[in-house]
Specification:
This protein is of the alpha+beta class.
């Protein structure tokens, strides 16, 4: 039995009682997740649910200490929760091996938890959990690490910045399109081609025009034109998807016809090694290899790569055909999805074989394709500890005492820095929304027109304040606007709008962004009503948007205006708030702080990208350095 007397001395008996009864969701059971689950179990939390899509790999064992060699290939979340129940038998731990973005995890599912703790390593899932927590009105503790750097913050709807309040640019390496398409020289060139071109053309959304997002210039226009022709040829192969010949046709197209076309360009190979045409018939001879269970850490033989290509292509084709075409959806590459990873690894290595390039194991391909940053066990442990401290404060209703905390590494003698939680960005495209739940009795019988009529007919005390001209969007799909009403008579199910999905309603009369959009989370009905809306009582009051200062506005000619600073010729920085000077600082001091913060940018896996975050000058009391 875990002794909680020390926690009681720190936070009080009432808080300890709250921890034991709180339902906690932990998303991710990897590097941070293992440490986090162990900390929760040993800190008085008794009801813990863990979800993770991944399985345990040999490389995890050097930092994910709940796992042992005998657990390889087993579910991370299930093994981790079994381990923490041995630490503390009083813990009621449950686990799922699944993708948190699946529609089965809808707003009602998230609402059953008192707090959510994110230990994820990919941007898409973190954005999704952020949105779902806002819709379900559940506080979220967000975290991220990158090597020796880490950070933790608390997200509470209408009270703090959400995950999307500040932009998070993905620093992507770019490669000349001619190199990727015609003259690859390194493994990464082949991996980019396999992931961003071939996989995207075959299995991503049908509306995806060109894989490899590049800007067309005078220098690469011919290459892009040829690339589009190849893409058109690949698109024609979609008709064979699901047939026995599909994998062979794709193989012969990209490793046969396309290579022969390149070889016909004699001048290109005067000073380069020419590629080799691959023979599908020769490589597909039976080798005794099981493509369903490849060795992730071995560089496979050519016949084994071919068998893995055929196996993964056929499985992806079946999945693609099974998707509802009306949703215009498609498959997305995920390093933790064996089918997508094996396809990219196989095609990249077959291309490497054709061009005489070093081949890589599946594991190495995963690291390169997934932009994985090496993890440090100590950083994970520090971050997980800070997450539990923040979770305790949130459950004790002590949000004002929560902070955004950073783990730093470098010249500073102290490695943990904290700053107050920031207020929501008034122009955030995610948290400046009114989140409501739309309960639908039968999505197959309810049309989009029924939903719009229902919304427009709401009582005055539940008016969505959108006016008469409303547009409806789901993700990036326009479902309806006053000039596009083709979908009004279609059932929600036919449009792919089912429980777990969200639709956004915006006003067509909103010229200045002052009308707050409404997000409706689709959920199962709780009554006999065909349609019902919940959540009006919890909608926050949004302040009017601040007026944007025109670039032509008058200012003192001796001053240089930055985001929140006035820097005069003496080098002094003056903070301004509604034209009232609140605090002066020296430019060099603020520059030093800004430089320190920018070093903590954690790329895709950061909570906040400090380089693009609107810099805030703060007084000495607002930044605290901890031992």
């Amino acid at each position: 039995m875990r002794d909680t007397s020390q926690l009681a001395k720190l936070f009080g008996d009432h808080t300890v009682s709250q921890l034991s009864s709180a339902r906690v969701l932990v998303v991710g059971a990897g590097g941070i997740g293992c440490e986090l689950l162990k900390n929760l179990a040993m800190s008085g939390f008794h009801s813990i649910h863990s979800i993770d899509l991944d399985h345990i790999d040999l490389s995890n064992l050097n930092r994910q200490f709940l796992f042992q060699r005998r657990h390889i290939k087993l579910s991370k979340s299930q093994v981790a929760t079994a381990a923490i129940t041995r630490f503390n038998p009083r813990v009621r731990a449950s686990a799922e091996q699944a993708n948190i973005t699946n529609t089965q995890y809808d707003v009602d599912w998230f609402a059953q938890f008192d707090i959510v703790l994110n230990a994820l390593d990919n941007l898409e899932a973190r954005r999704h959990v952020n949105t779902m927590c806002l819709a379900a009105r559940v506080p979220l503790v967000e975290s991220g690490t990158a090597g020796y750097l880490g950070q933790v913050t608390v997200i509470k709807g209408a009270k703090t910045e959400c995950f999307e309040c500040q932009p998070k640019p993905v620093e992507r390496k770019t490669y000349p399109v001619c190199t990727i398409r015609s003259t690859p020289t390194t493994p990464i060139h082949c991996i980019v081609w396999a992931k961003d071109y071939l996989f995207a053309q075959l299995f991503a959304e049908s509306s995806d025009e060109g894989a490899m997002d590049v800007e067309e210039t005078a220098e690469n226009s011919d290459e892009l034109s040829a690339l589009r022709k190849e893409s058109t040829a690949l698109a024609k192969l979609a008709g064979a998807m699901g047939t026995q010949d599909f994998a062979r046709l794709v193989f012969e197209k990209v490793f046969g016809e396309d290579v022969e076309r390149l070889l016909s360009m004699k001048d290109m190979w005067v000073q380069r090694r020419p590629p080799t045409v691959l023979d599908f018939a020769a490589l597909s001879e039976h080798s005794g290899f099981d493509p369903a269970h490849p060795d992730d850490h071995a560089v496979l033989e050519p016949k084994e790569w071919c068998a893995l290509f055929v196996h993964s292509a056929e499985r992806l084709a079946q999945r693609r055909l099974a998707m509802d075409q009306s949703t215009q959806g498609g498959l997305v590459f995920d390093k933790d999805d064996d089918d997508t990873l094996h396809f990219v690894a196989a095609t990249a290595n077959l291309r490497s074989l054709a061009f005489g390039i070093e081949q890589k194991s599946i594991f190495a391909t995963k690291a390169m394709a997934g932009n994985i940053i090496p993890a440090i066990a100590t950083t994970n442990a520090i971050v997980a500890g800070m997450m539990v401290m923040q979770a305790i404060l949130v459950l004790a209703q002590r949000i004002p005492e929560c902070h955004t905390s950073y783990v730093t590494y470098g010249k500073r003698a102290r490695c943990i820095i904290k700053e107050p939680l920031a207020e929501p960005n008034p122009r955030c495209p995610v948290c400046r929304r009114r989140y409501l739940t739309l309960r639908v009795r039968d999505c197959a019988q309810t049309t989009l027109g029924d939903v719009l009529d229902f919304v427009k007919g709401l009582d005055s005390d539940r008016d969505l304040q959108l006016g008469d001209d409303i547009s409806v969007v789901e993700g990036t799909r326009m479902l309806y606007d006053p000039d596009f009403d083709d979908n009004l008579s279609k059932p929600l199910y036919e449009l792919g709008i089912v429980s777990g999905k969200m639709i956004t309603l915006t006003s067509e009369d909103d010229d200045d962004g002052s009308i707050v959009p409404v997000v409706l989370s689709i959920a199962a009905a709780k009554s006999q009503d065909s349609l019902a809306i919940e959540g009006f009582e919890s909608i926050p009051n949004f302040a009017p948007l601040p007026q944007l200062v025109s670039a032509d506005s008058e200012s003192d000619e001796d001053d240089v205006i930055t985001d929140d600073f006035v820097v005069d010729d003496s080098g002094a920085i003056v903070l301004e708030d509604d034209d009232v000077v609140t605090s002066p600082m020296i430019a060099s001091a603020v520059s030093s702080i800004s430089e320190e913060l920018s070093k903590r940018k954690l790329d895709e896996i950061s909570v906040i990208s400090q380089d693009d975050k609107k810099r805030r000058a703060v007084s000495d009391d607002d930044i605290e350095v901890l031992d």
